[in-house]
Amino acid sequence: MSVAPGWYVDPADPQTRRYWDGEGWIGAPIPVDATPPHGPPPPEPEPEPEPPTAPPVVVAPAGTSPAGGPAPSPTAGQPGPAGQPGTAPGYDPRHGPPPGWPYPTWPGRPPEPRPHGLPLAGYYERFVARLIDFGIVFLLNALVNGWFVWRFLQELSPSLKEAWRRIENQEQTTEPLPPAGEQASALVVTILLIATALWLAYEVPAMAANGQTFGKRVMRIRAVPVDADAPLGFGRALRRWNTLGLPTLLWYCCGLGLLLQLVDAVSPLFDQPLRQALHDKRAQTVVVRAPHPAPNDRAEPPGDTP
Hints:
With 306 residues, this protein is an alpha+beta fold. It has two domains: 1-39 and 88-102, no CATH class; 123-289, no CATH class. The chain is 35% helix and 10% strand. It has seven helices and five strands; from the N terminus they run βββααααβαααβ. The strands form two sheets. A three-stranded antiparallel sheet has the order 1-2-3, with no helix packed on it. It has a two-stranded antiparallel ribbon with strand order 4-5. A hairpin with a 4-residue loop joins strand 2 and strand 3. Helix 1 (123-144) packs across helix 3 (184-210), helix 2 (146-169) packs across helix 3 and helix 3 packs antiparallel against helix 5. It starts with 5 loop residues before the first strand and ends in a 17-residue tail after the last strand. It comes from Micromonospora nigra.
């Protein structure tokens, strides 16, 4: 996964931010609450190289070989065994090795990223929020699309009645069922167009304003851009919805649109480390837990405090 250059929370120290240039960390870290400058940090002056130190002279006692003694330890500024960094100038273990040096391996599971200092939303929270939103969109379709669905069932009724009659009588025949009415195809297209338009009208404006639909607000999660803790804006919200919502129009093609939406829905389970769905990758967004609102400070009651 490629991440766009920008200021991000340092995975080695979540209390700081560092600049990612697309390939590695550069520049000195800044506090996580500080406002990062525009663009990359100014280049740091290169440290003056230390004069090489001569290895210690080992004088072996008579009758012994110098090779039998302990191996000398790496000197300052030189790589240690297996290419691991030694005590290079400017190396700070809290912020990771200098640019160009490999990150040391974590003794256990690496810490979870915290985009903009916020924890990532879990898949369960995202799934429940999506179910709530689907329920609202379904109710909107029942109100707006109900008449078209009823007309579509009327067009299919001859085929449905004949199929049910054959099942009840246990008839085994190769004769085709009666064809659907002439308006069945047009009604399917109309139903899908209205359903897609209702979904777009429900989700895109809300996501553009604050990164939350009603379902996300209930589950206390929201979508934010990867590069900044800011509103998505209409363009990014529309790109994010396109990947998930537009395949609804392909339900007519043997359910192809539904298959694409299922793949998108389960994609966060297999994405690391930001748990991005395909529509998140399209819009460069990430879903995080929304911080709880700070409780209002209650005024002290009049009188002496105990």
